[in-house]
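Anyone able to model this chain together with zinc ion?
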Amino acid sequence: MKEVLCPKCGIRMEFMAETESNSEGREVRYFYRCPACGARINESIMKILKKDSSVIIKVLQ
Ligand SMILES: [Zn+2]
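re: yes, here you go
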C-alpha cells in the first residue's frame, strides 16, 4: 500500500473504507483520512450491483 501524507499536516493518512447500501446494491468508498485534522482524499469508489442472481462490480474511479 502506498503512503499518503496529509497536505495540511504532512503526517501519514489512514486508509479507510465505508459502505452504503441502497436499492441498486452497495457502494464501497475507499479513502485516506488524516487522524489529526480529518482531511479526506478519495481513492476509489466501487459499486456492487445485484441483478437477478449475479453480482456486478463496477469500479468508478
Ligand atoms: Zn491533516
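The chain has no helices and four strands.
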